[in-house]
Amino acid sequence: MGYIDLSGVTKVYNVGDTMIHALDDVSFDIEEGEICAVVGPSGAGKTTLLNMLGGMDACTYGHISVDGRVITGFTKRELMMYRRNDVGFIFQSYNLVPNLTAIENLELVATLSNKAVDCMELMKLVGLEHRANLFPSQLSGGEQQRVAIARALVKKPKLLLCDEPTGALDYETGIQILRLIKKASEVMNMTVLIITHNNAISPMADRVVSMKSGKISQIAINQTPMPVERIEW
Amino acid sequence: MRNKLRFISVVIIVALGISFYIGIKSASPKMSSTANNYFNEYNLLDVRVTSRIPFSDDDINRISGLENVDSVVKSRYVDAIVCIGKSAIVDNNGLEMSCRVSEFNAWKANKFNDIKENDPLYVNRLKLVEGRFPQKDSECVIDSRAAKLYDAINIGTELTLNGDGSSITDSLKTDKLTIVGTVDSPMYISDERGSTQVGSGSLSAFIYVDSKSFSTDDYNELSVKISKSENFNKFEDTYDTIVTELAEKIRDISSDVIDVKLAEIKNDYNKKIEDKEREISSFETSSKKQLEEKTKEIAEFKNYVNSEDSILAAEKEKSEKNKVSTKNALNSAQSKFNTLKASYDANVEKFEGSSQKINGYSELKKLYDDLSVKHTNDKKNLDKLESAKNTAKTDLQNAKTEESKAAQAVSNAESRISSLSSDISKLKNEISSLESDRTSQKNKVASLDSEISDLQSKIDALTVKLNEGTITTSERINLSSYRATISGRRAERSDAQQKLDNYSSQIDTKNSSISNKNKEIDSLNNSMSSLKNAQTTAANNVALMQTKYDSAKSTYDSAKTSYDADKATLNKYKSSMDALTSGQTELLTLQKTIESQKAQLESMKVSLTVAQINYSLAVRNGDVKIQQAQLQLNNAKERYYSIDNEYTELKDEIDQKKANLNGDLKMLKNTLKNVDSITWNTTVQTNLSGHQSFISSMENINSMSTIFPLIFLFTAMVACFVIMLKNVEDERNSIGLFKAFGYSPFTIVGKYVSYSSIAWAFGSVIGIIMGTCLFPNAIYSIYGSIYNIPDINIAFNAKYIFRGLVVSFLTTTVASVVATFRELRHHPAVLMRPRAITFNRRAVVEFFPAVWLKISYGMKLLVRTVSRSRKRVVVGTLAIACCTALVLSALGLLNSTSDVKNAQYGKKGVFNYDLQIVLNADQTPDDSVTLDKLKADTNVDASMLISNISYDISATQSRWKGFDTAHVIVPSDIESVGKYVNFDVVSGSKKLDSDSVVISEKMAEDLDLKVGNTAYFTDNDGNVYSAVIGGIVENYIDHYVYMSPETYKNVFFEEPVYKYILCVLKDYLTDNEVATLSSDYLKTEEVAGVTNADSLADSVDISIEQVLALVVIFVAAACVLAAIVMYTISNVNISERTHEIANIKVIGFSDGEVLLYVIRENIVSTAIGVLIGLIGGIFLHTALVNYISVENVMYGNHIAWWSYIVAIVIIALVAVAAALPILYKISRVNVPETLKAIE
Ligand SMILES: Nc1ncnc2c1ncn2[C@@H]1O[C@H](COP(=O)(O)OP(=O)(O)OP(=O)(O)O)[C@@H](O)[C@H]1O
Ligand SMILES: [Mg+2]
Questions:
Q1: H or E stretch including B145?
Q2: What are phi and psi of B71, to 5 degrees?
Q3: Distances (CA, A) of B1084 to B728, B1036, B1079, B1088
């Protein structure tokens, strides 16, 4: 049994009369400290999977355990505490709070956590210490995503969930972001789950899970992950 | 559209804003129109003219001739104290009740009442409340308020009128009136009834009688109506100017007319004064003569008394002398008699002692003889007794011998038995030894027998062997030895048997001897019982004999003793008898002496009696003479005293008359002096008592309605406006779409206008309904309980409705039209993209890094949020501030009004006294019986007479510029007045002894009187007096002026009239005890009424309930508005920020934390709003207190601390109520879906 363990996870959406199986009996493991890439065509259920793992939504059947804790059995409040303490999110659309400056966005999270990292240190880590007092709208997309990464790292999560973090960025910036995530996972010994449309990212991951219409079509284990610099698509 | 709740909010906000605005705005106009209608319908006079000099027809004609005058109606009135039976009714001020009795035309009144016939000459029409109008001279109708207020006044009650000095029957045909109905009059719309010259000075009620009930022809009142009076609004300046000018013209006429009359009057008065003076001087001379005569008479009687007195003295002396001489003679006779009597008595005693003894001899002799006879008889008897005793003695001895013989026989038999017994036992011993011998012998025989049989068997066996021939030699030897032994043994045995037999025979003989002896013992025992019986009989006989002997002996002994005693007595008698025979000769001589002395005593007694009679005669004669003299003296004295009394009476009478005459003179002179100031008094309608306070009430509501509804409407409309703009902004997407589809701008605008105008229309309709029905009625009901005017009728006030509609239309419909057009300027493509919100706006503080870097993260967030949503924060703050101010001021109003009664009558209030007693007639502190009784009562702590008369107080000589009717209180004892009234000085000094007066606060404020100013006092006749104000004191209900008796005399030229007593009771009395005490005093002759201070407090007009109604209206409206505005604002906020909310929920914020994050600006605006609102509330409260103030009540001006807390709590609840739905919404935000929406 791995660090993260999914077994028989099924998510059914009722839309009117029809039932959509966004996830259909998904089972796989992720080891601690691994970087796991989830690839697949649009509508495959990647985001749904991530939501389940992040405790944002409840699955219809099956169970998920993270670090030995079965999160599918959590109450609302436990889920909230799980999100608060154990999970960091990074989205394609950055999702920064628009009326707070970059550093304030970090501080917002820091106020919640008791094991928070110094915010300015993190800004340095993502190389944005000189932009800390700018509003999100005054930052480029890549910079915003780096702020988002920094914000996800503030509380030193066990699990970092990234939903297409490079989707809106150009190649160079995408590489930078991925490198940052990989570096952070090494520094903080985080388990990372990255969703992407593009198979080109798979060489840098320890494990690549391919999904298709709610089901896992293939799991490939990469014994020698490629260094970030060499990834291209 | 999208948000039903938002639509409802807009409807409610519009409704609230409009209703509050219309409601409060139209309250005052409605009151005004209602009152105007009432005055017109009841044909209320425009100017009232009164005069002390009756109006002539000429006067009336001159007034009628004035420009603008439509009609002049003359009437009569008279003021009186109203009593039931003999005791006055006590009014709700604890004063005796005075009424104004006016005339009216009952026939016209009935016609008006029945068919509303509008006779313009029937003025000041009465509205029949209950009962009917009078039909007889002795019937009247009375003030309905008085009927309601006083239990004593009912339909059917007969009232007795008392003119308080002048005679009622001078004016009316009868002074007894029966109430047949109760009425309202437009002349009196408030509780005030005006002032008067009678009683306490203030009128408590009005009475109307038919014109025929008046007997006088002196008309003292005119009702003037101006032409087209009904066309004027009585509360507007135009009307006021017209009537005021008219009144002035009338007064001008007055001075013309009156000058002529005055000359006459002055002449009249001068003549009267001369007459008076003449009367006084003639009276003085006549009275002087009278007095002199009396004095002479007194002198004569004095002489007479003196002569009588000397006669009495002489008489007394003579009688005394006579008494002494006779007394002496009597005394000597008495002493002589006494000595003789003493010696006589001694002799007699001695004689009697001796003769008694001699008389005792014969008695003694008789005793002796009797005893001798008895003695001889006794001797014979004694001898007989002695012989009897001796016989008894011999009998006893015989019996004793017999007894000893019997005893001998018994003892003999017993000794025989014992010897026999010992023989038997000896024999028995012998037998037992024989038997043991026999037994040993028997044993010996038995052993021998067994040895023999043993030997025999051995022999037999050997014999058999022998026979068979098997015998051995040894056996043969054995056989022979056996055979030898056996024969030896057989001999031995027979020997032993013999001995045995011998023993047996011996035993048998011995046994037979024992049985013989036993037989003998038995026979002895048998004879023994008979012997013993004989012995017992003998012993009994001895005892009997003994007793007989003892009794004989004791009889003899006692006889012997008595015999010996008699013998001794006889000897004693004998010797006594011998001694007596010698004393007889001495006795005879003593008898002779006694007889001679007795004769002497008899003669002496006669002379003593003579002396006694002489003495008593002397005494009696003296007494009689003295008594006669005394009587004569008393007579003289009595006559002297009566003459003296007559003199003092005469003198008093003369003094009194002189004082009266002088008083009359002074009054005449005074009146003459005042005659110059006599004018007609004119009162315009708006100055009628009560009208002025009605007008100020209306003005108050009016000015209140300028601030309140405007703030309210403004807040509501700003909220509406913000919501509308937001609404259109939210719809910009669809607007873009419509535009892209090619709809014309007007079609698009029409869509949004219809939404907003429907909301507006709904809100307006609800608002108009509430505003015209609910609010004015609530406000009117508060004033309606104070003023006696008909109920308000619902009428739309087009002006305010129109204004309200326009404003709300602008902020809803027009706002949305403008906003839509603004959006429509943009290209559809722009519209369909989300609006570019520039979030990078920095708050001002951020430019000061020194500050910015120091403040906490939470504060930063706050500042940022507030600076981003300034519009909403302002609206929220406004709503909350408005609400807080309303709530606080409303609560404060409650504080202020509830304060009043307490401040005036409560513990530590202005008035300290517990009871006010009304007296039937005025008293002085020295001669009031009730006061004495109170002073002696242990339940009463203190009591004092006071004078209480009402005057109109003004700051200028004429009352024209406004006046207050005040109680002028004169305490009879200025030292202790502090016990009854607490003087809390506002300014100046509370000292009453100086030549200045102390007035109450509210009046000082009303009339703008300061310490050092002069206050003018006008009585009902228009006489004006003045006094300097020395101090102003706290007071809450009614107006008061306090002054010392001296000051009163100086100001009013007369002595104060003490008709009331204030009492402070002991603290420990219960309510019941106080009631009993009151009724006790009420029973006193002097007392007309007793009023409890508590019941005075109860009669204060503004009750808290009415204010509470106002408070509830304000608070409820304000709270609903604030809650809805707050909710709407945050609701707008929420839909705008769902993405942000989802975002921070993902980060791990709980719902509560999200709520705090989202409504942070609401919290800010609530906090700021509460702060502003509390401050505003304090000002608003002050304003409100002034607005609602009724003329004679002063409200407290401070808000209790708990009101602040309650206000804050209420606002907090409102804020929480507004936030709860938001929390619900936050919990409903679907995080994944919201986040996905943007991707
Ligand atoms: N709230 C929802 N209600 C109904 N169906 C949904 C809902 N969310 C997702 N789905 C359906 O579930 C399926 C999986 O969606 P999901 O968002 O996981 O796809 P994805 O793999 O992330 O695609 P993409 O790469 O385009 O983001 C889709 O077919 C989608 O229609
Ligand atoms: Mg997706």
A1: helix B144-149
A2: -150, 155
A3: 85, 33, 9, 8
B704 has a pLDDT exceeding 70: no
* A85 shares contact with chain B (CB less than 8 Å): yes
Condensed to tens digits (0 to 9), the pLDDT of residues A126-173 reads 888 898 888 888 888 888 888 998 998 888 898 999 988 888 778 778
Listed in sequence order, the residues at least 6 apart from B506 whose beta carbon sits closer than 8 Å to its beta carbon are B434
A48 lines ligand 1 (CB under 6 A): yes
For B846, nearest residue in chain A (alpha carbons): A133
Residue B731, min C-alpha distance to chain A (Å): 22
Instruction: Count Cβ atoms below 10 Å from residue B1168 Cβ, excluding itself.
Output: 18
Which chain B residues are within 8 Å of A83, Cβ to Cβ?
1146-1148
- Tell me if the pTM is above 0.90: no
- Is residue B753 within 8 A of residue B816, CB to CB? The reply is yes
Helix (H, G, I), strand (E, B) or coil at B48: strand
Whether B1144 and A108 lie within 8 Å, measured CB to CB: yes
Q: What is the C-alpha to C-alpha distance for residues B730 and B484, in angstroms, rounded to an integer?
A: 177
State the Cα–Cα distance between residues B490 and B378, nearest whole angstrom.
Answer: 109
> Looking at CA atoms only, how far is residue B1001 from chain A in angstroms?
60
CA B366/CA B167 separation, integer angstroms: 116
Cα–Cα distance for residue pair B1115/B1102, rounded to 1 Å: 20
To the nearest whole Å, the CA of B721 is away from the closest chain A CA by 25
Which helix or strand (DSSP H or E) is residue A35 part of?
A: strand A35-39
Beta carbon of A14 within 6 Å of any ligand 1 atom: no
Give the tokens for residue B988. Answer: 């100046």
pLDDT of B829 over the 80 cut: no
Atom of ligand 1 minimally distant from the CA of A15:
4
Residue B800: strand pairing partners:
none
- pLDDT the model gives residue B1: 43
Question: What residue ranges define each of the domains in chain A, with the CATH number in brackets?
Answer: 4-230 (3.40.50.300)
Contact B825, B740 (CB under 8 A): no
- Asked if residue A152 lies in contact with residue A193, where contact means CB atoms within 8 angstroms, the answer is no
| Residue B734 phi, psi dihedral angles, 5° rounding | -65, -35
Cross-chain Cβ contact B857/A104 below 8 Å? yes
Instruction: Taking the CA atoms of B144, B148, B151 and B156 in sequence, report the sign of the dihedral they define.
Output: positive
Segment A1-45, tens digit of pLDDT: 678 999 989 999 888 888 888 898 899 999 888 889 998 888 888
Question: How far does residue A176's CA lie from ligand 2's centre (Å)?
Answer: 22
Gap between the Cα atoms of B1184 and B1178, Å rounded: 10
Residue whose entry in the numeric block shows the structure tokens 């004669």: B621
In angstroms, the CA B972 to CA B909 distance is: 22
CB contact under 8 A, A56 and B1231: yes
Q: Is B710 on the interface with A (CB under 8 A)?
A: no
Which of B278-292, B1081-1095, B1209-1223 is modeled with the greatest confidence?
Answer: B1209-1223
In this complex, how many residue pairs, one in chain A and one in chain B, have their CB atoms less than 8 Å apart?
A: 70
CA B888/CA B1210 separation, integer angstroms? 10
Q: Is A47 in the pocket of ligand 1 (CB under 6 A)?
A: yes
Q: Do A208 and A222 touch, CB atoms closer than 8 A?
A: yes
Assign domain B257-580 to its CATH architecture: Orthogonal Bundle (1.10)
DSSP A77-125: HHHHHHHHHHEEEEETT----TTS-HHHHHHHHHTT-SSPPPHHHHHHH
Among B840, B1150, B1232, beta carbon nearest to A51:
B1232
Tell me how far CA of residue B538 lies from CA of B209, B390, B403, B405, in angstroms: 142, 21, 5, 9
Q: Which of B515-524, B666-675, B887-896 has the lowest mean pLDDT?
A: B666-675
